[in-house]
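Take a record.
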Amino acid sequence: MNEKKLAGEKAATYVQDGMTVGLGTGSTVYWTILEVARMVKKGMNITGVATSKNTEKLAQEHGIPLVSLEDVSSIDLTIDGADELTEDLTLIKGGGGALLREKIIAYHSTHMIVVADSSKYVNKLGAFPLPVEITPFGYAKTVNAIKKLGCDVSLRKEKDSLFLTDNGNYIVDCSFGEIDYPSTLHDRLNQLPGVVENGLFIGYAAKAIIGQENTITYVEN
């Protein structure tokens, strides 16, 4: 069975009538959004807050009512994916380029559930390059400052141009190897002028739903 579909659809069962739901970005939460749309068509009343323009488009195409983050006092539940996650639910996110909006929405959520296939569940973060969102102004200087933290960096490209986030920024993918101290790295990156946010999500997720062949593994804090 498709592990992403298994995890994504299971996460939708946590959505309840009347909720404001943060809708994540990525290939696993795609299945959550389709399942939530099916529930809405059956009469469930929910309001979605999208973490990216791609998610906004998908939700609108399938009839999920959306509002902006500014229009809600809080978000009851956010369901989002991860590029890597560990047993303590520390995450690397940003493979799709939406890490800033994803982190803002996660911060303003009462609960966050992560959905992933089994390949994303790891003993230690770092095999997946850590995305860092940076400003276009002075970006070469910012890249050099990030390099000094001990990583190989690559400015993300889309076709022949630099990739632009929904916020008009660039993404640097940073290969640190195994990340022994995520909190320390998180803080050191965010202290650099020109860094907007990084893809380490620490202390946001309460539960992970991981598809594994024909079953589901749950990880909780």
The helical segments are 3-12, 29-41, 53-61, 99-107, 139-147, 182-190.
